[in-house]
Amino acid sequence: MDQNLLDPKNPSGPVTVRKLKTWVDRDLCIGAATCVAIAPKTFVLDSDAKAVFLDTTVEDTDETIIDAAKGCPVAAIIIEDEQGNRIFPK
Ligand code: SF4
User: Fold this and answer.
1) What is the pTM of this model?
2) From the alpha carbon of 77, which atom of ligand 1 is closest?
3) Are 65 and 39 in contact (CB under 8 A)?
4) Pocket around ligand 1 at a 6 A CB cut-off
């Protein structure tokens, strides 16, 4: 992978970007890569075909990242606000 990870120690998060805490449930992720298509600056697949966060995540808007979560066929991308309220999936 020639792209840099946002957090190499926690490649699938949780990561906090602006006011959103986001992570990928690696047990759920099936590598469908819908998230990569919707938010290519945020997500890439690692060698296990699990979604991980790129260090360019901040270049995608909150809306784009939320859209990526909504587009995941198995709802493996989880997003909370600063207070720990679940934004997606509800
Ligand atoms: S869309 Fe969902 S299942 Fe597909 S790679 Fe992204 S997190 Fe994994």
Assistant:
1) 0.95
2) 7
3) yes
4) 24, 29-35, 43, 51, 72, 74, 76-77
Ligand 1 nearest-atom number relative to CA 68: 1
Report the candidate in 76, 1, 3 with the shortest Cα–Cα distance to residue 35.
76
- Residue located via tokens 């959103």: 20
Tell whether the model's pLDDT for residue 79 goes beyond 90.
Answer: yes
Distances (CA, A) of 7 to 39, 85, 89, 90: 17, 23, 23, 26
pLDDT at 14 over 60: yes
**15-82 — its CATH code?**
3.30.70.20
Minimum CA distance residue for ligand 1 atom 3: 29
* Structural domain boundaries in the chain: 15-82
Which of 9, 19, 17 has the alpha carbon at shortest distance from 39? 17
